[in-house]
Design brief:
The structure holds three protein chains of three kinds. By secondary structure, chain A is α/β, with parallel strands linked by helices. Helix content of chain A is about 25%, strand content about 35%. Chain A contains two helices and eight strands. Chain A has an eight-stranded mixed beta sheet, with no helix packed on it. In chain A, a hairpin with a 2-residue loop joins β2 and β3. In chain C, a hairpin with a 2-residue loop joins β9 (about 215-220) and β10 (about 225-230). In chain C, the strands form two sheets. Chain C has a six-stranded mixed beta sheet, with helices on both faces. In chain C, strands 2-1-4-5 form a four-stranded antiparallel beta sheet, with helices on one face. The chains are: A alpha/beta, B mainly alpha, C alpha/beta. At the A-B interface, α1 of A face α2, α6, α7 and α8 of B.
């Protein structure tokens, strides 16, 4: 039961260092630092083929991430992929005729949605639960190769 | 032939008996934790002996592991032109797996075996018996504080291991091998998810801490009170802890990271 | 601590106790009583289970048959809380002292006080110093158990055992392996504490001389049964060959010198045969 002041101090230091390490991991190593998932609104887009898009895939405009994919489901009637995205509320001036396309980051990278802000003819913006009509599906590698081969064959 | 089966049967039965004893022991220990809270002195002393004294081995090992990851990772990734991903690789390996697992193994070896030896020796010198006769519950007084200390220390040690490891990886990758500092951190931050990776890593280390402390304390408590008995018990602690950690790691990893 | 004013003349009453460990019968239907205020010794050869008896009295082990009553209460029928309280009133001195090795002498003696009472540290200090003084080790209060000699460790353990002013103290082989001076000190302590504090003492030992010198009543156990009982004088005058052999320390008698073996001459002459034993 006897323990000195030194022991107490060292224990305190140890616990403090351990907690500091946890914070370090949280902020420096992970994405917690840039994770401000408080206020978001939902926008929906239907794609013919959402390819390799996953939940939490990024949604960006001009390369700046403004949100993430929150769910991907299948519309039973139209057999299209229904993708829901959570957009950070501070980006609330997206024209309602903006387009959404699925791109691939790098050659073998993960897929993401890029929003292309439209001309804003109607003057309205995308709001919660708005739907984007202008969509461009993911590029499927096999289709590309197929087209390429076809063109090559025709061009010959 | 018969003898073999007979011995197998006996061994199985005694294994089950031991499992039963250890579970009752765990229950007893957990109920004792309530008594530890109002007596922080006991706890602090144990955290000192279990956590603080493991600090050095954990940080140094973490540093080296991180450095090796940086080195190995760099050579492998550069074959694919993907050196910039070194940060993610090092951090992911550490936070998800190496941090919790290696620090738990080191903990079992250093602190676990020390706990087993201490308790075994107390049993051999009749200190536990003596306490019982003085109407003090030795489990609540001696075992529970040590259990709580182990349980609290392991996640902290795992975090230290991972944090120092990342720094080691940075030292080697950015400092020595020329990986771009910005890319190192940026890719890491973009791809290591707080909930998926960090929290899961912490959960793993908590589970490991629970199991290792349980094994170490029980083996000591259950040891045959002779010199040989205590020495065997310490060996069992390290071996059983290693099996449990690695086995649980597989199960936890499959549960946590299986579906992403 | 306050005693319940039981009118029992015997503080400990053991009736028809049977206890086996594995296949070995350690106690076979024995009955004995420990009188209040007296020093009672339980003697017998090594391995007769004398320590086991103390553990049975203290409730650490349960008998297969029979009952043990301490201060009017049936030890093994008590609920843990009551057993807990009963143990606080029993002091036990283990063979090795069983001091807690991670604390010094003072803290060891203070242990039961700190665990079981809410007395302020100043009072605890006074009590501890008093107990240590009674065993003659007040000056050793800051030493660690590893720094004590065997005899000193036992005296500290004794101070700890009387810390809560128990009803009775059980001594497990207190004289074993002691040099004459420590032996003398211990013998003196046991006797004077018993009288001064009005304690009851139970000594378990196989040291005939020392024990007979201070015991008021002796039970001699062998092979699970009581083979002799009485005051030291009665036993010295006993007719029983067994008791005589034990009390006088004769090499041969009812407990034979030679471990059972075949005929000596036969064994020597047949040394050329394959079975060497």
């Amino acid at each position: 039961m006897q323990h000195s002041k030194t022991q107490d101090t060292l224990v305190g230091l140890f616990v403090a260092t351990g907690i500091a390490a946890l914070f370090y991991m949280a902020l420096q190593i992970s994405n917690l630092g840039s994770y401000s998932s408080n206020d978001t609104y939902t926008i929906i887009a239907n794609f013919q083929n959402s390819g390799g898009l996953k939940i939490k895939s990024p949604v960006s405009i001009a390369g700046v991430r403004i949100g993430r994919v929150s769910s991907i489901t299948l519309d039973k009637e139209t057999h299209e992929s229904v993708v829901e995205m959570q957009i950070d509320s501070k980006y609330n001036n997206l024209p309602d005729d903006s387009g959404a396309s699925i791109y691939t980051a790098g050659l073998l990278g993960e897929q993401y949605i890029s929003i292309d802000p439209g001309p804003g003819i109607s003057g309205d913006f995308l709001k919660d639960k708005s739907k984007i009509d202008n969509v461009s599906s993911a590029i499927i590698l096999e289709e590309m190769i197929g087209k390429f081969m076809l063109n090559k064959a025709e061009g010959k | 032939m018969f003898e073999f089966l007979e011995n197998l049967g006996k061994a199985t039965r005694s294994s089950f008996a031991k499992l039963g004893r250890s579970t009752l022991f765990l229950g007893h220990t957990l109920t004792g934790i309530g008594d530890v809270i109002p007596r922080p002195n006991l706890l602090i002393k144990q955290i000192y002996s279990v956590g603080v004294l493991s600090f050095l081995i954990i940080t140094i090992s973490g540093l080296f592991v991180g450095m090796v990851l940086g080195l190995q990772g760099f050579y492998t990734l550069s074959d694919f032109g993907a050196e910039e991903s070194l940060g993610v690789m090092v951090a992911a390996s550490l936070v998800r797996e190496l941090g919790p697992v290696v620090s738990a193994l080191l903990f079992a070896g250093r602190a676990g075996s020390a706990l087993t030896a201490e308790i075994g020796l107390m049993k051999a010198t009749e200190q536990l018996s003596g306490m019982e006769m003085m109407a003090v519950d030795p489990v609540k007084r001696i075992i529970s504080p040590r259990f709580l200390a182990g349980f609290i220390s392991t996640p902290l040690l795992a975090a230290l291991f991972s944090a120092v490891g990342v720094m080691g990886g940075h030292l080697v990758g950015v400092g020595m091998l020329g990986v771009d500092d910005g890319a190192f951190w940026a890719q890491m931050q973009a791809n290591i998810d707080f909930q998926e990776d960090i929290i899961n890593g912490v959960i793993k280390s908590i589970v490991f801490g629970f199991v290792v402390s349980w094994i170490a304390l029980f083996e000591g408590y259950d040891a045959i009170p002779t010199a040989e008995g205590v020495s065997r018990a310490t060996t069992r602690t390290v071996v059983n802890s290693a099996f449990s950690i690695l086995g649980l790691d597989f199960i936890l990893t499959a549960l946590m990271f299986g579906d992403i | 601590m306050a005693n319940s004013e039981s009118l029992e003349k015997n503080i400990v009453s053991i009736k028809h106790l049977s206890f086996s460990r594995g296949s070995r019968k350690i106690f076979d239907d024995i009955s004995l009583d420990i009188a209040r205020g007296k020093i009672t010794a339980i003697m017998g050869p090594s391995g007769t289970g004398k320590t086991t008896l103390l553990k049975l009295i203290g409730g650490q082990l349960s008998p297969d048959h029979g009952q043990i009553h301490v201060d009017g209460q049936n030890v093994h029928r008590l609920k843990s809380k009551d057993l807990f309280n009963l143990r606080k009133r029993m002091g036990m001195l283990f063979q090795s002292g069983a001091l807690l090795t991670d604390m010094n002498v003072f803290d060891n003696v203070a242990f039961p006080l700190r665990e079981h009472t809410h007395l302020p540290e100043s009072m605890i200090r006074s009590l501890v110093l008093m107990k240590l003084h009674a065993v003659g080790l007040r000056g050793a209060r800051n030493l660690m158990p590893s720094e004590l000699s065997g005899g000193m460790a036992r005296r500290v353990a004794l101070a700890r055992a009387i810390a809560l002013d128990p009803l009775m103290i059980m001594y497990d082989e207190p004289f074993t392996g002691q040099d004459p001076i420590s032996m003398g000190a211990l013998v003196h302590l046991i006797k004077s504490l018993n009288n001064a504090l009005g304690l009851t003492s139970i000594i378990v030992s196989h040291d005939v001389q020392e024990t007979a010198a201070i015991a008021d009543y002796i039970y001699v156990l062998s092979e699970g049964k009581i083979v002799g009982q009485g005051t030291p004088q009665q036993l010295a005058d006993s007719d029983s060959e067994w008791v005589q052999q034990f009390m006088n320390g004769n090499a041969d008698g009812p407990v034979p010198f030679q471990y059972p073996a075949p005929d000596y001459l036969d064994d020597l002459l047949s040394s050329h045969s394959t079975t060497a034993n």
